[in-house]
Design goal:
Elements: H1 2-10, H2 15-36, H3 48-80, H4 84-88, H5 95-129, H6 135-163, H7 167-184, H8 189-192, H9 208-238
Length: about 240
């Protein structure tokens, strides 16, 4: 019910086309990069998928997080425009329910973007390297990992967007966070736990214990940010 309502709110805002076009743009990176510089990659010792991810994922991850940020800001812009969120409070619907509904919808769009990008990696691997034993398992693990580590950034983007009526304020704060993440995601483990930095991590080539730590950190981040949103909503209501 709440998911269908959130979908109706955004379907005329350009929300869905933005994610589709953004996904296609990100998916073009491994194809174009490998086509232009294939000689730089074909002789490397790692698996083809790992080679492609190492060469292209940082840029693709940045685009993905920017899509998440833009989508979150757009979702709450439609709520604050013409005081729609104030009118919503007169209905038997909690703001927290609306927040988590938006999180589910944004997560679904992130899955769609990752699916488009997965198809791009399948094509690039098949065309330039050829498929190999274990490819599908490696692909599934990698993109499941990307999805899980992207969830804290979804929650944080929505938290920031819900806190400001002016979309440009929330967008500016989040974009600054994204560009900070591009500089710190590989500096240290503690800094890489910043929600906007986590989507930059790659499954392949990472120590299994470190992978487990990132997975646990992602779950903890989701819970902590969700609780922070509930506290924020409660405090804000007390001052209204």
């Amino acid at each position: 019910m709440i998911l269908s309502q959130e979908f109706k709110k955004v379907k005329r805002t350009g929300f869905i086309p933005t994610f589709l076009v953004g996904g296609l743009l990100a998916a073009a990176f491994p194809v174009l990069n490998t086509a232009v510089r294939s000689e730089n990659y074909l002789g490397l010792p790692d698996t083809p998928l790992q080679i492609l991810l190492d060469a292209n994922w940082p840029m693709m991850a940045m685009l993905n997080v920017l899509l998440i940020v833009g989508g979150a800001c757009l979702m709450y812009y439609t709520e604050y425009a013409d005081n729609a969120i104030q009118k919503m409070k007169s209905l038997p619907l909690k703001e927290s329910t609306m927040f988590f509904g938006k999180a589910v919808l944004l997560s679904i769009m992130y899955v769609i973007v990752l699916t488009i990008e997965t198809l791009s990696f399948i094509f690039s691997s098949f065309h330039w390297f050829g498929l190999y034993n274990g490819f599908w398992l490696e692909l599934g693990k990698s993109f499941g990992y990307f999805f899980l580590l992207g969830l804290p950034s979804i929650m944080l983007s929505l938290l920031i967007a819900s806190a400001f009526k002016n979309m440009w304020v929330s967008l500016g704060i989040s974009v600054i966070g994204v560009f900070m993440a591009t500089m710190i995601y590989n500096m240290s483990f503690i800094l890489s736990l910043f929600p906007y930095a986590m989507p930059f991590q790659i499954f392949g080539g990472t120590d299994p214990n470190r992978v487990l730590q990132f997975i646990c950190a992602a779950f903890i981040g989701i819970i902590v940010i969700g609780i922070a949103e509930l506290i924020f909503l409660k405090v804000r209501r007390s001052f209204e």
